[in-house]
């Protein structure tokens, strides 16, 4: 269900299961993690085929789960692989991003929406919740109040409200253009900047690492 293609400095990764709104299976999660981890391009562009970004976990799989913890951990590993990738990962969100689909987007470095994008964590309506890192990343990104609202109501928000919340960075007609814009920058600087912004160590440790990384970039300019 994962299609991939290199276009210059951008690795295109497409969730390609449009008949199921790109819902993720265990195998799809593994393929997505592997594809992102092995990308050598400075930017990965993650999008969905058809009219949706991703509907989340395939509910047919969920209904037959024998080990819910293992399935949750599988999704968490995939989201962590996206977050930890050396490449900058840009999510191009057109149409619905629901549940696990939203959680995959949360792990990306940039979330770029089209005007048709919508977002929701509908787990509570199904007797579930977002267990692929959603209860961790969502409040970190948009704050506790909005994260509680989305997660406890199960409501859907449009692109404009997602922008207000800080859930997405921009609303554009062509999110792929943003991926190309990012890829036009110095590739080592991109990787080091992402690494620094993702660092959650102490302030002193972050500042020390920041100075070392900056020195590396200065040396490369000589």
From TrEMBL:
A Pfam entry, by short name: ECH_1
EC number: 4.2.1.116
Keywords from the named record: Lyase
InterPro entries membership: ClpP/crotonase-like_dom_sf, Enoyl-CoA_hyd/isom_CS, Enoyl-CoA_hydra/iso
GO molecular function, one term: 3-hydroxypropionyl-CoA dehydratase activity
UniProt entry tagged with the keyword DNA-binding: no
Enzyme class, broadest EC rank: lyase
Superkingdom of the organism of origin: Archaea
PANTHER family: ENOYL-COA HYDRATASE (PTHR43802), IP11341P-RELATED (PTHR43802:SF1)
Family: Belongs to the enoyl-CoA hydratase/isomerase family.
Name of the protein this chain belongs to: 3-hydroxypropionyl-coenzyme A dehydratase
Native source species: Halalkalicoccus paucihalophilus
